[in-house]
Amino acid sequence: MVINTNLAAQNSAQLLMGSSQMLSQSLARLSSGSKITSPADDSAGLAVSMKLTAQMSRIDGATNNVGNAISFNQTQDGYLQKVSDALNRMSELALLAQDVTKSDSDRGLYNQEFHTLATYINDVASKDFNGVSLFNGNTLNVTVDSDANTFAMKGIDLTSNTYHSMLADSVTSTTLATQGLTDIKAAINQLAADRASIGSNIESLTYYNDQLGTLKNNLSAANSRIMDVDVAQESTNYAKYNILVQTGTAMLAQANAMPQTVLKLLA
């Protein structure tokens, strides 16, 4: 039996230190809700989680971009619905002006409304969305994923001659009304194609938006498996390490008391 070196106490202290560290780690996990409270817990898992988190942030950005692009197209279509109403009325006026029972004075009244509507359509062509022209015909590339891939969103051109030529039309005579009707029918056909293009844009962008939502959910699930603590399992670990710390503390006290038995040999 020796006094200077108490191996039992040293071993007990080492085991107690390990149990205390595990208890502290378990407390940190339960209080934070995360399995990784420091890089030492799972360095590889932390690296993967950081990449997943960054990708999810980029997905949020892409989702906002796609959502704004959908709103852009919906705004375009809202204007084009009114342009369609104006063209329908203009075509009706062109037909009314060809009525042989109408006088030139009547046609003049029709022509006044005709030009007002043509001016309205020309004014719509200058509208913008947050400073971006709605109807200049430019194709816009919309970022649709976390890797910055883009979707070419076809533009609508209300400044084209098909729409603009109606400003020069007139219905002051049956001959002019006939030519005006021809131009209006061409504009209606172009408008139908333009609205179909907008519908195609919205449909494609909606698919991209749904895809981004699904991808983010899957990435969140993967990140959760790496980072989120299983409370039931960790509570069991906490109870185990708590018992080990209490037991280790008691055993260390016993180990420290062992050298005192030497006094009985000296008595």
Walkthrough of the structure:
The protein contains 7 helices and 4 strands. The chain has about 270 residues and is mainly α. The chain has 2 domains: about 5-35 and about 230-265; about 45-225, f41 fragment of flagellin, N-terminal domain (Up-down Bundle). β3 (about 140-145) and β4 form a beta hairpin. The chain starts with 6 loop residues before the first helix and ends with a helix. The model has no long low-confidence stretch (mean pLDDT about 90).
Number of helices: 7
CATH architecture of the largest domain: Up-down Bundle
State the total count of DSSP E strands: 4
Q: Report the CATH superfamily of the largest domain.
A: f41 fragment of flagellin, N-terminal domain
The string of secondary-structure elements, in order, is HHHEEEEHHHH
State the separation between the terminal residues, measured CA to CA: 15 Å
Instruction: Report the CATH topology name of the largest domain.
Output: f41 fragment of flagellin, N-terminal domain
| Largest sheet composition | 2 strands, antiparallel
Give the fraction of residues assigned to helices: over 70%
Low-pLDDT residue spans:
none
Structural class: mainly alpha
Percentage of β-strand residues: under 5%
Return Rg in Å: 39 Å
